[in-house]
Amino acid sequence: SRLEPEQSNVSKSPLSPEKSSQNPLDDSEEKLSAEESKDRNLPDAQSNLGLWGDGKGEDELSPEEIQMFEQENQRLVGEMNNLFDEVRQIEGKVVEISRLQEIFTEKVLQQETDIDNIHQLVVGATENIKEGNEDIREAIKNNAGFRVWILFFLVMCSFSLLFLDWYDN
């Protein structure tokens, strides 16, 4: 900025805090255009070096330049503090996400063992139901055979009573 003519410095310096705080994108665009103009004006600035080399020391700055640098410094410090706060918030969120992911992994592994246990219980219950159905079928068969024998016994008793009654008469 020291190599640029004073007119361009003065035209850039009246950046009001309102303008810079309202549109940070315009500030970055202005910075880019200022850098481009610096690159373009570098030969012009070198030719105007005689204007700057008139006895002023490199360390001496005008009050306007000092004020402009202080304002820019304060703005940059504010931006850096905001970025630092945002980074801290993001770090906290990442740590929270990591913790929740660990809990989620633990719960998934726990569910896997629970699902295996449930599967084994279901298989056992299915086998028990099959065995119970077979036992019921066998009981029905046995019960039917028992009924046949009782019916046969009653019929035989009836015939024997009839035979004895006929034989007595």
UniProtKB/TrEMBL annotation:
Gene3D superfamilies: 1.20.5.110. The chain crosses the membrane at residues 146-167. Residues 1-25 have a biased composition (Polar residues). InterPro entries: Syntaxin/epimorphin_CS (IPR006012). The keyword Repeat does not apply. It is found in: Endoplasmic reticulum membrane. One of its GO terms (cellular component) is SNARE complex. Residues 1-59 are annotated as: Disordered. Residues 66-93 form a coiled coil. GO terms for molecular function: SNAP receptor activity. Its main location: endoplasmic reticulum. One of its GO terms (biological process) is retrograde vesicle-mediated transport, Golgi to endoplasmic reticulum. Residues 30-42 have a biased composition (Basic and acidic residues). Keywords: Coiled coil, Endoplasmic reticulum, ER-Golgi transport, Membrane, Protein transport, Transmembrane, Transmembrane helix, Transport. It is a single-pass type IV membrane protein. PANTHER family: SYNTAXIN-18. Belongs to the syntaxin family. Syntaxin that may be involved in targeting and fusion of Golgi-derived retrograde transport vesicles with the ER. This is Syntaxin-18. It comes from Fregata magnificens (Magnificent frigatebird).
